[in-house]
Amino acid sequence: MPDKYVTLTPELYAYVVEHGAREDDVLRRLRAETEELGDIAIMQISPEQGAFMTVLVKAMAGRRALELGTFTGYSAICVARGLADGGQLVTCDLSGDWTKIARRYFEEARVADRIDLRLGPALETLRGMTDEEPFDFAFIDADKSEYPDYYEECLRLLRPGGLIMLDNVLRSGTVLDETDDDPRSVATREVNERAIADERVDVAMLGVADGITLALKR
Ligand code: DHB
Ligand code: MG
């Protein structure tokens, strides 16, 4: 098979961002403020991934969304902006510090009224939820070592036709290293194997950003 992918150079990546995402002033300032936190800013999603999430949620006329891993709120704002009127995003994180920034930007982006932030371990939050009010969309981006459990819980809480997006499924390319026994790498490889074999979902893995998998509940 001839190469069916483009290896991005920094210049080509800048082109993608320029033509692939309308990052507004609020998101631009949130990106700048998050970058001031240092290396940890790597956890923030990229602008084109954010635009993709807004479009996906909007395309499916999503009303109820779930996010595991709020960090400073960029992806939550992108999801919230895609929700239909009256929609709600439940977003989970462990960190009071990072989500303090997130809360400030939820106000600035005027989506605070549609975001329900839950502080605590995401798995506990998920396990405390019933499937009475199923979700349309779930973004999995919290503790990588818990991805297989998040995946199962999100599937349980999603409506048929609901969509899971898993972040960081390529782990900077290290998924290829079978000798990498970091629990986060092991769990990522495990969830990748599970999703592609899972008859409960239609699945598509994309080489966008650090790799994202879409799993559509049947
Ligand atoms: C890390 C986590 C993320 O969710 C991400 O998108 C990039 C990096 C990390 O823990 O290093
Ligand atoms: Mg991530």
**CATH classification, class level:** Alpha Beta
CATH level 3 topology:
Rossmann fold
Helicity range = 40-55%
Please state the CA-atom Rg, rounded to the nearest Å: 17 Å
Provide the CATH superfamily: Vaccinia Virus protein VP39
Number of strands: 7
Sketch the major β-sheet.
Answer: 7 strands, mixed
Low-confidence segments, given as residue ranges, are: none
Question: Order of strands in the sheet with the most strands?
Answer: 3-2-1-4-5-7-6
Give helix and strand order, one letter per element, not per position: HHHEHEHEHEHEHEE
Query: What small molecules are bound in this structure?
Result: 3,4-dihydroxybenzoic acid, magnesium ion
CATH architecture grouping: 3-Layer(aba) Sandwich
Estimated structural class: alpha/beta
Overall mean confidence score, pLDDT: 97
Please give the domain count: 1
Please give a structural write-up.
The protein has 218 residues and is an alpha/beta fold. The chain has one domain: 3-Layer(aba) Sandwich (Rossmann fold). Helices cover 41% and strands 20% of the residues. The chain has helices at 10-20, 25-35, 47-59, 74-82, 96-108, 122-127, 147-157, 183-197, and strands at residues 64-68, 88-93, 115-119, 135-140, 158-167, 201-206, 212-217. It has a seven-stranded mixed β-sheet, with helices on both faces. Strand 1 (64-68), helix 4 and strand 2 (88-93) form a beta-alpha-beta unit. The longest helix has 15 residues, at 183-197. The mean pLDDT is 97. 3,4-dihydroxybenzoic acid (DHB) is lined by residues 42-43, 141, 167-168, 210.
